[in-house]
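Final report, Chapter 2: Outcomes

The project's central promise was a pipeline that accepts a single protein chain and returns its three-dimensional structure in a standardized token representation, suitable for archiving and comparison. That pipeline is now operational. To close this chapter, we reproduce one record exactly as it appears in the project archive, with the input sequence first and the structure output second.
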Amino acid sequence: MMSEVKGKLDQVLELIEFIHTEIPDGNSLCQFVTIRMLKEFGALNMFISELKPGGLIIPAYQFGFTEEEMQSWYISSIDDHIPTADALKTNSFIWLADREDWDRDYPDLAKFKYPEVETFICWPIHIRGAYMSVMGVSFTKVVASNHEIKNYLETISGLVGLQISSLKRLRVSVEQDSALWNLLTNRQHKIVAMMSEGMTNNQIAEELGYSHSTIRQETIKIYETLGVTGRKSATQAYRINFPVHGANQVSTI
């Protein structure tokens, strides 16, 4: 038992490190959690949906679904009798690990079930101070509900919620101050782009052919112009504004 607990702690620390170093978006978080953290349980795919004004529940992030699958259940309502709505209304886990339970409790899910899926779990996650989002994961194995696995899933969703909250706050801030990016020089844009790829000041200096002192002075100017406090916040802002260039995808896990 102790080795199993230690293994889960190691995985939680790996998620924390991933969030800290890669600053991932919601889709990358779903991919990382599915492949890295829930693989032993047979995780197949994962989504995060958000409760919008008017009671609409709309998928915000996902991993493992095709575009056609996403479109088939894209919008639902908090009033619907479906697992995601029930998880939000009851603030609890909805745990389907038996086909008879699926058919009895949620007959409308028949059109969504996959032959390889044995368990579906969804539960609310805390984002921006409220339980207004819900996470759902499908598994190819039967996953029995117990205290340990629930704590593990809640720990995962807590970290995911914190990162999504951080990205949302940053996106609002960046959108309000997007004109600031036009004040950066071409060289400063290049420097921030290289920062977002994890390059050090020495590596950037060597790549661009400038001295370390020049790069250091330029980074200080970048922080002052953007109104950020350092490398991490500058990198986050860059990835929000320029996701094609700045976002690091988890493609080789």
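Archive annotation: The longest helix spans residues 147-176.
This record, like all others produced under the grant, will remain available to the consortium after the project formally closes.
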